[in-house]
Amino acid sequence: MTTGNIPDSSSSNLAIGAEIGSRGLRAVIGDDKGHILDSIHAIDQSESPLATVDGICQLIDQLLDRRHIRINDIAGIGIAFGGPVDTNRGLIIRSHRTPGFDHFPMAGVVEERFGIPVRVENDARSAAVGELRYGSGRGSRNMIYLQLGIGIGGAIIVDGRIVHGTSMTAGELGHMAVSTDGPRCSCGKPGHLEAYASETAIVERMRERLIRATPPETARWLASPGVTLRRIFAAYGTDDDATAVVDETVQVVGLALANLITALNSDTVVLGGYALEIGAPFVAAVRAKIRQYAFEAAARRVNVAPSDLAADAALIGAISLAFESAEASS
Questions:
Q1: What is the rounded distance in angstroms from the CA atom of residue 292 to the CA atom of residue 315?
Q2: Domain annotation for the chain: domains and CATH numbers
Q3: Cβ atoms of residues 13 and 322 within 8 Å
Q4: Is pTM, for the whole model, over 0.70?
Q5: Per-residue pLDDT averaged across 283-294, rounded?
């Protein structure tokens, strides 16, 4: 993230990015170079869509007030939402976190509040736009973005544009099947990538192995800080159970990406989320699996890299999409 003083606010190179997701609410002011100039966040304890929207709008108001910027000096607002989105109609399709968001007209409500163009996008697709234009995907035309976290999201870029698909669900990479009889995903179907490779699933698989471990081994793992993703990966090569869990995770992530690369012939894969926390060894291991399983000509040309924008990717993407919407409506 780049921080600095706000330039002359009479120019049209300022936009607002907002994120609504598992980490709460966050709003930023940014410019058309991909720089975040100021930010604010809050914990979202709302129990209704309107309360959540009011919370993000209050954050935007606070940002504008403390920087002495008028809303008319903002080109537009981009909102990255943690859940399925119909970006063409500005609707939230549903939220797995807060009830009541089914077909909620997010863009219209926020646009009515502020009177400037609003673009709503899924958070992973927004992060992919950020990486494509300002991060690890710069120079790419055909990119896959995989967000590894509590859940798994993703996005597909073809010829420089986000692929949304017929039902606006393209890029739901966590729901790719990587086995036919594996653990059940949060969506209820078996063998999905998220059921193996989400942070929640990795920790759960380790806990299941500890049921069969010796009492001293179980006690060692359950001692503070307990079974965590970082601890599992740190024990790779020294603990048989941790090594097995990590190997299986790398296997399914690599297999899923290899299939996508073979089908799409992408030039870049960007790994976000815990791939940054685990670091280069994880990225290298996934890259090796891609080369093992993907069609050789496609695998040879693909670049696999960790996210450059980290936790700011979705917000920087939202800012970029806000400028896009403002230009389209002018």
A1: 34
A2: 14-128+312-329 (3.30.420.40), 139-308 (3.30.420.40)
A3: no
A4: yes
A5: 98
